[in-house]
Structure formats: structure tokens, C-alpha cells
Amino acid sequence: MKSLITIIFLLTGLAGLSQKDLEKMEIRILPESELIIAGSTNVNTFNCKFDMDLICDWNKIQFNREDKFLIFNDLILPLRTDGFDCGNKRMNSDFQDLLMSESYPEIRIRIEKIELFHGDFNKAYLKVELAGKTRDYDLPVLVSKDHFKGKFKMNIRDFGLEPPKKALGLIEVDEIIEVIFDLKLNQK
């Protein structure tokens, strides 16, 4: 019994310690930021640009510093699927269909942690939730006080999505898409 009380006391003390190490800040993604989903077909390329005004509010973020990592608590970019503009109404509609936006109206990008290196680039560890499935990605990112920039490729089949075929199968969308982001940040 005495050892159980000691363990509980130790765990409670450690939990309090980690809470003290938690750093907080408020950031805002500025409207001049960009987030683009780029893809291609066998005849053309396309860029679907996200309307950054949909996520430009101030957000409180919390993180811990552990060794060479910044570990975030609930740092999520919620991207409404209807917030993407692919250049014309028909392409927007096709893109919404591809993402199954009626069933899954949001893509969620969760930034888990950033591994810090000397030099310009660091490594971000992300979770992407799309069409009810979640996949992990790690990628090089440029991080500064007012900037977060990077890109990564995804296979839409990993999320249970089928690349559409148009014009009686003559036009096929490639299953690999690229997410490109250049987030300009403001800090309180």
C-alpha cells in the first residue's frame, strides 16, 4: 500500500511538472498565406487553392519542448472541403466529389511535432484526416517566428478515394496529389 501511494505521488508530481513546462502562445494565420492541393491528369495539371479567410482567426496553441522537438497539443488546421477553388465550377464540383465532401466536409491536418535542426529546414510530423481515414506524414519544413512553409505528396487511394475518370475514361486523374503550404503567421 505504501509503495502504491509513493507511485501515485510520483506520477502526480511528474504530471504537474509537465504542465509547468507547457508553453502557450496565440498565433493567427494571415490571409496572404497559401495552401494548395495540386494534381494532374493524363492531359493537364490542376491547382485547388484554399480560401485562407476561413482559418484566419487567432488560435491559442500549447506545446512542450523536449530535446530537439516541439510537441504540440491539438494544433489542428480544419480545412472545409468547400473552401477550395480549383479555377472553375465544374472542377470545383469534381474536386468535391473526389473528396466525398457530402459525407466528410472537412480535411484535418494535425501538426504533432516539429524536430528542430541547425539550418533553415526542420522536420514536421503531421496527421492528415481525409474521408474518414487518417495517415501520418513527415516532411521538411521551413519554420520561423512568422512563417511555416513546406509540401508533401499523398496517394488519394490511401484514404479510400478513387481517382476519377472523365470523358468516357479518356481523362484520368493521377492518384498522387501534392499539398503545398506557405503559412504566414502573426503572433500576440
UniProtKB/TrEMBL annotation:
Extract the Pfam families matched here: YceI
Q: Which InterPro entries match?
A: Lipid/polyisoprenoid-bd_YceI, TTHA0802/YceI-like_sf
Q: Where in this chain does the record put each Lipid/polyisoprenoid-binding YceI-like domain?
A: 82-184
Q: What is this protein called?
A: YceI family protein
- Its source organism is Christiangramia aestuarii
